[in-house]
């Protein structure tokens, strides 16, 4: 019988690994891809999609089924469903399909790549199903269109990019405020001054040392939101958009395989510690941090180690990026970034990321050329 590899998660890591395995071996292998989302979501462009009239839904969503149809039907199974409970000792995972059916999958090798979600009702990551994420994007777009005052909370890369998109489009007609919990943007990274300068050029306002402790509907106008800060100040806004923190989708993973941050604990091979046949990549690992290019390297490494494991060979150390790269698009003509400690010019970040938000790379996940 062919070996069965179950991949949990159909985003950047999971779909990459599925392609890598299926391109190499469709005879002695069965790949079962489980995704709560029926569509591959290019969430890197979500901050631009909520700007009215700039991107269409079909620009950032593609059916996962279409990405797999070129492979023999006997070599894979695609299930729209959610992982509920994994038993690494029994080599099984219980899932709930989109129709509500409970199903237990057995595996020879397992990949944990279910990603993360964001705190608050915002679409920077897939929130639930394709239909739910789509609805959230559209409702956020409508709220952006109607608001005259918008507060973005969280000054990491996502917060900077979201503020940049809003200010590029509405900097002269709406008040856009970015709240930073610390005294610098992007956790004080060396790109912080450049990012702040580019945002100011777009008329965005930045408020430092402004950690949010509470949000509530305004008593005077329930349609508005009161944002309470740690220093006691309260801001009243038409629209509050949080971008703080990522919450790993690991509730189905037994607690002993998770660290204190609920992230999957892996070794240098990106094999889950304490197991011989469970691997993990992407936001569920966040090692050294969550990031698109970091996930690509992890997915490539896990794919290779799965091939070795299926051949009865020992894994190899997963290679990381030769240097840390951080880039933030700031609207549709600017940016701030670095390669290692080398600062990148604004125009360079715009051409590399801000111009398209990486959308041309999306086709690689559909035609399989990413792997």
UniProtKB/TrEMBL annotation:
GO cellular component, one term: cytoplasm
Protein's recorded name: FAD/NAD(P)-binding domain-containing protein
Superkingdom as given in the UniProt entry: Eukaryota
Family: Belongs to the FAD-dependent oxidoreductase family.
Family matches, as InterPro entries: FAD/NAD-bd_sf (IPR036188), FAD/NAD-binding_dom (IPR023753)
Domain (FAD/NAD(P)-binding) ranges: 4-288
UniProt keyword annotations, A-Z: FAD, Flavoprotein, Oxidoreductase
GO molecular-function term, one example from the UniProt record: electron-transferring-flavoprotein dehydrogenase activity
């Amino acid at each position: 019988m062919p070996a069965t590899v179950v991949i949990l998660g159909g985003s950047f890591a999971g779909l990459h690994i599925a392609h890598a395995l299926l391109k190499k071996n469709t005879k002695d292998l069965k790949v079962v891809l489980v995704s709560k989302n029926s569509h591959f979501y290019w969430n890197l462009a979500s901050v631009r999609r909520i700007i009215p009239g700039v991107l269409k839904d079909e620009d950032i969503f593609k059916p996962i089924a279409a990405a797999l149809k070129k492979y023999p039907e006997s070599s894979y199974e695609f299930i729209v469903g959610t992982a509920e409970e994994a038993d690494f000792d029994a080599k099984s995972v219980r899932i709930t399909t989109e129709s509500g059916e409970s199903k237990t999958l057995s595996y020879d090798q397992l990949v944990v790549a279910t990603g993360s979600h964001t705190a608050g009702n915002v679409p920077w990551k897939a929130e639930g199903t394709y239909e739910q994420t789509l609805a959230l994007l559209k409702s956020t777009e409508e709220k952006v269109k109607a608001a005259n005052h918008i507060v973005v909370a969280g000054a990491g890369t996502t917060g900077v990019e979201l503020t940049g998109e809003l200010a590029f489009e509405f900097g002269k007609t709406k008040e856009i405020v970015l709240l930073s919990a610390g005294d610098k943007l992007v956790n004080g990274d060396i790109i912080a001054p450049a990012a702040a300068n580019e945002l100011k050029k777009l008329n965005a306002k930045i408020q430092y040392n402004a950690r949010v402790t509470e949000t509530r509907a305004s008593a005077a106008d329930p349609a508005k939101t009161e944002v309470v800060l740690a220093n006691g100040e309260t801001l009243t806004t038409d629209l509050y958009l949080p971008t703080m923190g990522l919450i790993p989708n690991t509730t189905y993973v037994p607690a002993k395989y998770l660290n204190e941050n609920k992230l999957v604990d892996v070794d240098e091979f990106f094999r889950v510690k304490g197991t011989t046949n469970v691997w993990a990549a992407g936001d569920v690992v966040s090692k050294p941090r969550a990031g698109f290019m970091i996930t690509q390297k992890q997915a490539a490494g896990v794919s290779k180690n799965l091939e070795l494991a299926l051949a009865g060979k020992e894994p190899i150390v997963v290679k990381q990026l030769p240097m840390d790269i951080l880039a933030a698009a700031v609207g549709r003509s600017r940016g701030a970034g670095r390669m290692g400690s080398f600062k990148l010019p604004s125009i360079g970040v715009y051409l590399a990321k801000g111009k398209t938000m990486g959308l041309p790379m999306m086709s690689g996940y559909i035609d399989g050329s990413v792997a």
